[in-house]
Amino acid sequence: MTVTNGVHVHKSVPSALPLVQKLSKDHDLVLKTFRLLIADLCQQFSGGHPGGAVGMAAIGVSLWKYVMRYAPHTPDFFNRDRFVLSNGHTCLFQYSFLHLTGYKAMTLEQLKSYHSDRVDALCPGHPEIEHEGIEVTTGPLGQGIANAVGLAMATKNLAATYNRPGYDVVDNHTWCMIGDACLQEGVGLEAISLAGHFRLNNLTVMYDNNQITCDGSVDLTNTEDVNAKMRACGWNVIDVEDGCFDIEGIVSALEQARASKDKPTFINVRTVIGLDSSVAGTAVAHGAAYGTSSVADIKTLYGFDPEDHFVIGDTAREFFKGLPARGQNYVQEWDQLVKNYTTEYPELGAEFQARVRGELPADWQKYIPTNFPEKPTASRASSGLVFNPIAKELKTFMVGTADLSPSVNMIWPGKVDFQHPDLRTNCKIDGNYSGRYIHWGVREHAMAAVSNGLAAYAPNTIIPVTSSFFMFYLYAAPAVRMGALQHLQIIHVATHDSIGMGEDGPTHQPIELAALYRAMPNLLYIRPGDSEETAGAWIAAINAKKTPSIISTSRQVLPQLTNTRRDGVALGAYVLSENESASVTLIGVGAELSFALEVAEKLKTEKGVTARVVSFPCQRLFEQQTLQYKRDTLRRHQGISAVVIEPYAPNGWERYADAGISVKRFGHSLPGKAAYKFFGYDIETLTAKVADYLDQIKGGELLRGEFVEL
Amino acid sequence: MTVTNGVHVHKSVPSALPLVQKLSKDHDLVLKTFRLLIADLCQQFSGGHPGGAVGMAAIGVSLWKYVMRYAPHTPDFFNRDRFVLSNGHTCLFQYSFLHLTGYKAMTLEQLKSYHSDRVDALCPGHPEIEHEGIEVTTGPLGQGIANAVGLAMATKNLAATYNRPGYDVVDNHTWCMIGDACLQEGVGLEAISLAGHFRLNNLTVMYDNNQITCDGSVDLTNTEDVNAKMRACGWNVIDVEDGCFDIEGIVSALEQARASKDKPTFINVRTVIGLDSSVAGTAVAHGAAYGTSSVADIKTLYGFDPEDHFVIGDTAREFFKGLPARGQNYVQEWDQLVKNYTTEYPELGAEFQARVRGELPADWQKYIPTNFPEKPTASRASSGLVFNPIAKELKTFMVGTADLSPSVNMIWPGKVDFQHPDLRTNCKIDGNYSGRYIHWGVREHAMAAVSNGLAAYAPNTIIPVTSSFFMFYLYAAPAVRMGALQHLQIIHVATHDSIGMGEDGPTHQPIELAALYRAMPNLLYIRPGDSEETAGAWIAAINAKKTPSIISTSRQVLPQLTNTRRDGVALGAYVLSENESASVTLIGVGAELSFALEVAEKLKTEKGVTARVVSFPCQRLFEQQTLQYKRDTLRRHQGISAVVIEPYAPNGWERYADAGISVKRFGHSLPGKAAYKFFGYDIETLTAKVADYLDQIKGGELLRGEFVEL
């Protein structure tokens, strides 16, 4: 290995590489076997991404054989090192090592399912968390590296909370493989900056520096001094010049990384994409099979039989053979350690084991107030009233904000920041790794993506809570999606929803964003209407063990309503004010729920129209109810028209309402009440619109069944 | 000025600053006047963001008085320097200088409208492009700096295309003010990397380094060596130690920046947030008025009368007086230059002037094929057939991709890359600034945000075209939104839509994303069904002069259909196959349009059910049609049920259909056809579902008007 301070090398011609082949005979055979396996796997269905996986072979051997602590036969071993393949399209790299190292589910037959039409394949086009040995689902670039930062933070937090002298019950390392893209994607850059700030010395990023992207040379679009940039971000940097063969050098770099005192480590490994194929060192090697004759040529070059496919010889099998047993040793040592720890620290040990099992104390709801002050309260403040006592008591929750502490009300008395303790001396920043309040900075996307990593450490061991203005969850959306896709429990507290947030104007008023989150599978988007419903929103979110939630709250004060019910929120929608002979149902939502009640009152007193009111905080929870409940709640089958009042794009409400008083354009910068008035959300205008609508339905100018925006 | 190589200073205590007060008497008075104006403007309605604007006063004086070339009385002067306030919450900074320098619309009365309930205020909570003197709408952090990169690229491209010796018809500079957030947000970091790569020496970023964010000290979340990071990204770095007072030093730094030979410049200006207020140097100064007594105290300190408000004395007025006249000189010189240029280069001059007016040649549609090969074609390929001939001929289009050149088919014969010409020598990368093909790298968010800047340079002078997989327009969404909000014409080519994209799996299959873009105001989301409709999609997008579009295309081949019509796309939806006595309308969309036709056929032959088919490429265009057209197209008022076939979340289709064959969960990694089959999108299953639905409606088990997912 050559450790240099050298900068990023700009040439991508393989022949320019100093190919120091420090290879044992076994290594040579194992690397060849691995590379041919990848070539064959792509060739069978003539698709997939061979080049990167082939180029990274020596990195994989170094990791799985010599450095990484894991247990193929106990894949969920709690204190295992985590491996994240952030360049997820090279998934065959990981799948093949899972097979070779003895993960039971990954049989050779399963390995061959890559790109097949087998519905239960364990080898999808990108790694998926559901499958044995996969820590996080990757694919969308930049997400994995951010997840890895979260996994490393989880270790730091659990270690600082539970480790005691002689008992390092949590001390695993996180290894993350990246390609060029993770150094280009904003979410990756945000996460890199955070990892440096938090001084995560238990995180190593290995950069597959093959200088090739889909478009061609990386120099087409990126000519930075990447090592200098990483150093400026607070990382150790180690160069490996011959990443295709120099296993000894890579192992040494990885071990240096694990021994790092106070910085995360970036290992810049020079590799050749599609090594030894006819397209080696070119973009063509990235996303297409080599072709039958090229694969045959490599086999000949390597001294293999061109007619044989998927060959894993005895020497290669032997090379990996002892790994499951080694893994079980780790497991047994750790089990014993935890047993002794629990003997010495019974209370802490019990708490730790409950955390390992992902359990909250059964009586966690006792921390939620049973009732609230009667004064009008912004639901962002209600959210603090409901949740901060829980956060204070239960270490499961790690709570953070994208630089909006004064706005989101997530600080509990005595909260401690998650920080490296040395920042106290250097920058007068208090905190330590057992702290559970995270200053994410103005990095909404990384906030959500790193939180996915915190949640993925082990099921429900840590429940991350993020917070920002609702509008900026559009920045975070790709990561919110990845949380939902992976069935991770994460709670996003989104304040300043609706045009009622006021002066900040159209750039901050989330007209269309609810449509996205209501459509996103496996996500609860909940808009509570007062403190009581906010309690319901939190209960629903904390009970959703495999589903992330967004709790969407108001900047402005809302009246405390009399008939709202926290258990109603769990149903998605419920009748707030019934009237057997109603001629219209008003659907009220979140910050505008009280408007529906006021309009119902005014319709009665001024227009002689009888209205009933349904509170509708969450469409997805409502969809989970029975058809009967849904009909009884909405009563549209009885011919009662429903009008929804929400200053958002109406998309999706057409399923539940016949008309919407909605907003079809971007917002307007005005004080909250003036903004409401500007868009017709004063009680007088709303009442007139509903009455007028009913007249038009009666007069036949409008047809029921044709959704109308009023 | 102190130019040092010193790194980022971590202390935020104002008294620690070396306050070298190199102030002329006039400067002193002007700075005080400006700072009090900001304090008064926030105090009147007790809200807003005073601290940053106050801290940046000397930067503003340096820019508007001494360095920036602009014309207050001709705000849209084509060759003006562009100023972008990326930290948009400090908008009073810009509004106040617009007033002081003589922009006519920004009267003192208008200035006072900040945070008022005046509906036609020119002082919204963040700068808005609609208003005189504002180049781009900012607010969502990180967007502005990316826009600035686009503005600088626009200058480079127009200059390289049209300038001739002695005739620099385009040579303006772009100045961008940022706070800490733009150095934290991923989109900002992506844009910074691009600006360094493209060596945009006509771009200067001024960093208001006050070391304070909402949460407190920047050190809470960011302890990078920011100057070293910027250098690693290819930027010049200049430090200004006393940014509150050292106008001479700031001017010198700005002039150095304008003279930079081949790099963008980053000026790290140390300032104090809320200078001289009781909350100076603290987070409290960021987002709240100082309070009446604090404002009075500052007035006393400055020798002003505490009872007087909004005071702009004669000396301050005099200081800015000559700027409109200076501006008109720039305008006249440029007008004369363009006149002489057009005399010497008549053809080029005429073309340039048409570009300035934002005009395309009237006959641009002639480049679009009138018909297409009959063989099945992926609509991503159709898109290339339609658009690449236009891109080849018309310099208005700048076309780029987020590292997916081989997938998106946007390369025309002879295309030249937009690159700094020196990369040819250093990295063997061909291209120059007149090139119009942009390798954005794996930076979808910056691709869209920088494109907003390209489009904002002047209305329709450049029409940016971006491209990536549809799913990754979720990464780009905040910038796509800002394009729509600003009425910028940008065309996003989103390929690999629908589950039909196959093996890449659920991370790449955009189940819920269409719901976002169909709900987003002022955006056309168009899914064409074959080559003919793809022509229609492009025509609609190119005709939408104030609206961005997403053209959403398939990875997989689609049959060329017989009755599709490009002019039908302009209507949003149209009848593809009519049948007077139909008992069901099948709505077909994009890649699955042919499924609707096949199902209709099978319903007839196998179930004896008569179906009509509507092609529905764009909901927003359809909404713009008359009620009569909409009813005639869908015929739901005649009691005919409509079933939409689209493998997306159905949200929004409930307005047009009674039932949807949709997808309620995330996707699955399978080859395209197998993925369709897995989700029931084979013709047999689809047909059975429609027939079954009709039976259930007939039998009363389902009620019309209750939207059902089949």
TrEMBL record, chains A, B:
<dbReference type="InterPro" id="IPR055152">
    <property type="entry name" value="Transketolase-like_C_2"/>
</dbReference>
<comment type="similarity">
    <text>Belongs to the transketolase family.</text>
</comment>
<dbReference type="InterPro" id="IPR009014">
    <property type="entry name" value="Transketo_C/PFOR_II"/>
</dbReference>
<dbReference type="GO" id="GO:0046872">
    <property type="term" value="F:metal ion binding"/>
</dbReference>
<keyword id="KW-0479">Metal-binding</keyword>
<dbReference type="InterPro" id="IPR020826">
    <property type="entry name" value="Transketolase_BS"/>
</dbReference>
<feature type="domain" description="Transketolase-like pyrimidine-binding">
    <location>
        <begin position="377"/>
        <end position="560"/>
    </location>
</feature>
<protein>
    <recommendedName>
        <fullName>transketolase</fullName>
        <ecNumber>2.2.1.1</ecNumber>
    </recommendedName>
</protein>
<dbReference type="GO" id="GO:0006098">
    <property type="term" value="P:pentose-phosphate shunt"/>
</dbReference>
<dbReference type="Pfam" id="PF22613">
    <property type="entry name" value="Transketolase_C_1"/>
</dbReference>
<dbReference type="Pfam" id="PF00456">
    <property type="entry name" value="Transketolase_N"/>
</dbReference>
<dbReference type="Pfam" id="PF02779">
    <property type="entry name" value="Transket_pyr"/>
</dbReference>
<keyword id="KW-0808">Transferase</keyword>
<dbReference type="GO" id="GO:0005829">
    <property type="term" value="C:cytosol"/>
</dbReference>
<dbReference type="InterPro" id="IPR033247">
    <property type="entry name" value="Transketolase_fam"/>
</dbReference>
<dbReference type="InterPro" id="IPR029061">
    <property type="entry name" value="THDP-binding"/>
</dbReference>
<dbReference type="GO" id="GO:0004802">
    <property type="term" value="F:transketolase activity"/>
</dbReference>
<dbReference type="InterPro" id="IPR005474">
    <property type="entry name" value="Transketolase_N"/>
</dbReference>
<keyword id="KW-0786">Thiamine pyrophosphate</keyword>
<dbReference type="GO" id="GO:0005634">
    <property type="term" value="C:nucleus"/>
</dbReference>
<keyword id="KW-0460">Magnesium</keyword>
<dbReference type="InterPro" id="IPR005475">
    <property type="entry name" value="Transketolase-like_Pyr-bd"/>
</dbReference>
